[in-house]
Amino acid sequence: MFRQKKKQLGELLVDTNTITNHQLNKIVEHQHETGKTFRKSIVDLNIISEDELIQVLKSHMGIKYISLQNYYLKKEIVNQIPSYLMKHYQVLPINISGNKLTLAMSDPLNVVAIDNIQMATGLEIEPVIATTKEIEQEITRFFGITEYLEETINQIDSSYDKSKNENSIENIGEDSPVVQVVNSLINQAIKREASDIHIDSTKTSMNVRFRIDGILHDITSPPKHVQDLLISRIKIMGGMDVTKKRTPQDGRCSFNLEGIESDLRISTLPTIFGEKIVIRVLIKNRKYINLDELGFRVQDLDKYIKLLKSSAGMILVTGPTGCGKTTTLYSSLNRINSLEKNIITIEDPVEYQLSRINQVQINEQIELTFTNGLRTILRQDPDIIMIGEIRDIETAQIAIRSAITGHLVLSTLHTDSAINTLTRLIDMGIPSFLIKAFAGGIVSQRLVRIICSTCQEKYTPSKQELEIYKKYSKVQTDVTFYKGRGCKNCENTGYKDRTAVYELLILDNIIIDMLIRGCTKELTDYARTQGFIPLLENAMDKVAKGETTIEEVNRIIF
After folding, report:
1. End of a domain among 266, 283, 300?
2. Which residues form the signal peptide (predicted)?
3. pLDDT tens, position by position, 276-292
């Protein structure tokens, strides 16, 4: 049957005068010598191009050609066929409809492949043509890390003697399987621009997930027996104690991938099934986002830059964890950074290194706290101070006093809106006379995913989505709604990258007085007269512009 399949394709090429009988014999001889497929042998011998071969199959056999660049492999579909069959026959399942499996094939006349896959899946096979190169690329992309990890993990001794001193793992070489597995996970996280690596311990296995654009994605599930080795290796990288499993630990290390320097922040947490690890991936010397790329409206950007150019005052960026506050602060500092200014930051941790800026890392073990660090910074003749986060009343008081005594202070606070930020400071115990002296502005923000430009398409929102949109949007007519269909470019999510939605509140005496008196409703109405746009309205404006979806806004804000 193997020989018969070759004759079928070969005879078709001869019958269509695409190749001669002499060339057919050369192709068959080449494949016998090399063990390569008939189609690869044609390309190797340069008898005809792959495009010419595809054209013959389309024209004379009526077989549809597809480009795999337009498809994203879905795990549940790909898993219908064992990976070894895909590699052996150069095939790729791309869709299931009812009892029919659409199969991309480099050789759609390979009846042996079709029969075997039909037997393996129990589905009717509809063959389509795809290039060998695209099929190989997709197989590698989909199975690359999974198969590599599985093969490497299988080399790790499942009978690892836990009674041995676990510190002995420090002596293992860089070519050992456990080191290769950990390095491979970090490599993939960096390549896929993940912000965090999550390693969870379950009752029967481990789960590895990457956070990409704010969403966790399943990557692989290493077997339970390698749990202690993998976790111990990561702990050693982070300078932690491998023998302490019931106590949370924090560590850090540097990692280099093809010249890309990364800083890894490692956190361990004891759970009932073992330790959970989260690794924050911070790329050093990353190109910073310019302020005008953050998502500000033009009129608000002008107001914000005016605040940054002030010689004194305070700018607070607020929102939940992971909403881009640090990015906004770093972009702000880059905008005003110059040789004429002494800029000092105090952070926990220092996430990115900034040129010509003095950055201080919190270290509570030597009593270098935000409060103590701020007091010292004020003796360093600063023009601009950036405080990573205001966590307590003492830090807040020093920050505000610094702002009203001739310094520009930038910091972050965990509040849900710009208007509630000063209320939060009052609740923390900041005296009203300090609040009244507060000058500057407050940015409250969230991050929403951007619709993938590759697979963006129009759609009709649901009744519930339209109700949400109409309630919070000022743009009510001539709106075209978009969503992402899902493709390879966006890993089938429909979204690619993120942008900020925000509200900017410029403080004046009237606003501060209303806040102190608790006149929140009147404050919002007055702020609107001064150009204030609430966060939800700003978010719906991005929906109207086709940048994001109602569903995404609903997920992030409500």
Report:
1. 283
2. none
3. 999 999 988 777 788 99
Specify whether the CB–CB gap between 488 and 71 falls below 8 A: yes
Residues 296 and 426 both lie in one domain: yes
Task: Of 119, 116, 92, 117, give the one whose Cα is nearest residue 106.
Answer: 92
Q: What is the pLDDT of residues 306-349, one digit of tens each?
A: 999 999 999 999 999 999 999 999 999 999 999 999 999 999 88
Q: Residue 396 — left, alpha, or beta (φ > 0 → left; ψ -120 to 50 → alpha)?
A: alpha
Question: Are both 435 and 306 inside the same structural domain?
Answer: yes
Please tell me whether residues 376 and 270 are part of one structural domain: no
pTM over 0.70: yes
Encoded tokens for 522: 């009147």
Residue 360 belongs to domain spanning: 291-449+499-533
Domain annotation covers residue 51: yes
Q: In the chain, how many domains are there?
A: 3
Q: Which residues have C-beta within 8 Å of that of residue 257, sequence separation ≥ 6?
A: 186, 187, 190, 191
Is the peptide bond preceding residue 349 cis, with omega within 30 degrees of 0?
yes
Can you say how many angstroms the Cα of residue 98 is from the centroid of all Cα atoms in its chain? Answer: 34
Taking every pair of C-alpha atoms in the chain, what is the biggest distance, in angstroms? 97
